[in-house]
Design goal:
Elements: H1 3-12, E1 15-17, E2 20-22, E3 25-38, H2 50-56, E4 60-76, H3 90-103, E5 110-115, E6 118-120, H4 123-128, H5 137-147, E7 153-158, H6 167-179, E8 181-187, E9 199-204, E10 211-216, H7 218-241, E11 245-249, H8 254-261
Parallel strand pairs: 4-5, 4-7, 7-8, 8-11
Antiparallel strand pairs: 1-2, 3-4, 5-6, 9-10
Helix pairs in contact: 3-8, 5-6
Length: 265
Amino acid sequence: MNPLRAAIVRGARHVHAGGTVARGARPGDGYVFDRLRGYAEGDDPRRIDWSATARIGSLQTRVYLEETVLVLGALVDESPSMRLGRKRALSVAAGEAVRAWFGAAESTDRAGRIVDDRLVGDRRATVEVQAAGPFDLRRSLELSVRVLPQGSSFLLITDGLDLGASGAFDDVLLRIGRRFDATVLLARDPWIDGLPLRGFVRIRDAESARTKRVFIGPRSRERYRRASAERDAAIEGRFRVARWRIGTLEEADGAASLERTFGLR
């Protein structure tokens, strides 16, 4: 079994919805081997792996997962700010992560990506399709709630800059956290550790494309660093309240970022 898929299945069994537990994956017709672990009191003796026990020197138990059918959904932030990065665009890393996400699907699994105002269900298209119009995070999240079945494993990749201060955003995040096994990969500010700028410079807003001439000195660089850290912490806090699994999208490797989020690295 694909290790990422196995990790998604393990996480998907703990989706809470309105005080109840909804399975994040649908039952299949059997059981599949997941991993070995040390024997614990209460384990079924029939699942002791004697070959591994002899090799390791202590009792080892085979762990099985109920065979499942996953529904994998994804939404990738395609706003202009995702095209930024120190050495390469965050959107490139996002593409790597979403390919790994849908690459975890097996033949019986279902896949769907929210793009523009539709759900793309062709598994081959889910990886490469891109938005044709302006990206609207809130509208896309609300569409996800309507078109994906309860218990889906849902991945959002975003820098969170479009969240704003609206309570309506927090409401849809909470609905998704209750309805799905929801994971967000947050793209941090590429320059959170310090602006590589000095003196009078002209800067351009990544979202609006408006430019402004400003002076960048030690104090302004420190103010920027603090403000970026506070903003990122506030964005993460909103997802945490809504009970999402939270990871960081690293500019260098999107697939590895996803794997770390599920404890595989």
